[in-house]
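input
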Amino acid sequence: MASEKPDHDTGTLGKAVAVLDAVAASNTPMRFRDLAAHIDQPRGTLHRQVSNLIEEGLLEVNADQSYSLGFRLLKFAARAWSGSGFREIAEPHLKALHERTGETVHLGILKGIEVIYLDKVESRQAVRMHSQVGNSSPCYCTGVGKAGLSVLPNAEIETRIANISFKQFTETTLMSEQALMSELDQIRASGNAYDREEHEPGIHCVAAPIFTNNFSVIGGLSVTAPCYRVPIEKLESWAEDVRSVAKAIMEELPIKLGPRA
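output
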């Protein structure tokens, strides 16, 4: 007689991750009815997923019956963070670039069609960026995202772009595959990517790609600043510095991450 399928199979795990993703991505508190409207699962299945996540400490119930991510996730995040060799290698270089520019420096990694920010050195100025380490942003309207995409073969870029639902965040957001591919050609030619207020009004950046030979690391770094304080000419004057720092990080990656990097 065949044994029963275990509760924690891939499908069950995927359903649980969908719940965590929904809670993490929401800008407003989510209650059960919100999850039910957002996630395509039977209510009974969803209720079991939520109950299991609460029991395991991965979700918490707030006083208003909304959900938030549980503290147990912090332990997982801390362990993943401590193992981020890429971030550790890049950190002194980010600080050096920050010293040169005085503005916010970001380090990000490309995952699918999003950029996940791994590190940030905050501006010395009074007005600062609201970005947070661990947050993700679309690749097509961010400097680090476009820089990372630019190093990939065209076939791989087209595969990723096919999964993008272009959303217009500002008047300058790139809104088509053709516009994005054209800009990636420019980035390859110059070695620098720009976010020209494409994700947030009044914020622009200059970026450069960081990658390993086998593409185990694909990402980039950027210097980000408000437009009112840093004109585009000043931002462009940092382009060579950004490329230089990115190159220095890439030279260290094969040595410190191993020969397969």
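quick obs: The longest helix spans residues 239-257.
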